[in-house]
Design brief:
Blueprint (H helix, E strand, L loop, with lengths): L1 H18 L3 E2 L5 H4 L7 H13 L16 H7 L3 E2 L9
Parallel strand pairs: 1-2
Length: 90
């Protein structure tokens, strides 16, 4: 019974984690970016265009993208993350 409970708990934790996983703005697809509040097709494309030239070093850097200001940033800051982009030149 204890093993069954632990198994169910583990499955629940992994399911919740995948549902609430933060979007990596250095690697996310247009579709993934569009899951963020206030980010539609145009802003998702702008993010992708920006990161093709500039890697996001911290989440606040997203405010450098045209059309994304403090208001949108405050809506999405808990839903985004930044890890190095493997395609970024050093």
């Amino acid at each position: 019974m204890k093993k069954l409970f632990l198994s169910i708990l583990l499955i629940y934790v992994f399911a919740i984690q995948s549902i609430y996983a933060a979007v990596n703005i250095n690697t996310a697809s247009e579709k993934e970016l569009m899951t963020l509040k206030g980010i539609g097709e145009a802003k998702a494309k702008a993010i992708i265009e920006y990161r093709a030239k500039n890697s996001f070093k911290r989440i606040e850097d997203i405010m450098n993208v045209k059309g994304i200001g403090e208001g949108i940033f405050n809506k999405i800051k808990h839903d985004i993350t930044v890890t190095p982009n493997r395609n970024t030149r050093k």
